[in-house]
Amino acid sequence: MQRHAVCVTEGMSLNRVGEQTGNALTWLARREEAIASNLANADTPGYKTRDVENPGDFSSVFATSLSAQEVPNLVSRNDGNNVSLDREARLLAENNMKFNLASQLLRDELKNVRSAIEEGRSS
Amino acid sequence: MSLFTAISVSASGMDAQRTRAELITENLANAETTRTPDGGPYRRKDAVFAAAPAADSFADVMSSLSSSGGPEGVAVSNIVTDDRDPDRRYMPGHPDADADGYVAFPRINPAEEMVDLMNASRSYQANVAAISSVKDMINRSLELFR
Questions:
Q1: For residue range B84-136, what is the model confidence (pLDDT) as tens digits?
Q2: Which residues constitute the domain of residue A118?
Q3: Between A and B, how many CB-CB pairs are < 8 A?
Q4: What's the domain count of chain A?
Q5: pTM for this one?
Q6: What is the ipTM of this complex?
Q7: Which of A41, A68, A115, B120 is exposed most, by the fewest CB atoms within 10 A?
């Protein structure tokens, strides 16, 4: 994903939308990893739920801001674990839909760039 | 770190939950077992889970050492045996009865085991759902090339 995002950034510096969508896809992939960790550790004593926050600004690549952090204010069970299956199921669905949206946007952007190239060729 | 890491994290979860389900079925099957190779009745077993960093490659291991917050899988760190006293039932005709006519049976509550089994099964399903979601995302990314 990282390499992919860099590719998009370098290849289409004239294309801000494509660049930002690529960064958003990177964020969503990181977030999916955090959700997978939470689900895998749903029964691990002492494990705390973690999440990758929305960096808010997708215009620059942000390796440091994309690390998973513990989520505050969640209720822990007796074994010190605070993973809620409902929360993770919701995030999983949400993340998937956002990824679909972002990849569709990127596809449309790439289509636009391609059509611009084709047009230039035919004249 | 990539979407494939998320798949191996979920796979570790499936593996751990399957081990747990295996132990639970073993407990249920041996709920009335009075003889074991170690002597005495069967003793209930349970899996202890611990978080383990998910790493596919050397680079992943290096980055997980330098920064916290990498994806974490799960592993069965220990299998504990229940050391509570066995359940003593008065059955003088039983071949394993002691001098007073009591037989030591495993202290296993089938209802408790069934609840644990359902829990393990639900957690397994949650991991499968995560894998299919990641698969979906990977396919979406591949479609960008078309």
A1: 899 999 999 999 999 999 999 999 999 999 999 999 999 999 999 999 999 99
A2: 2-122
A3: 120
A4: 1
A5: 0.81
A6: 0.81
A7: A115
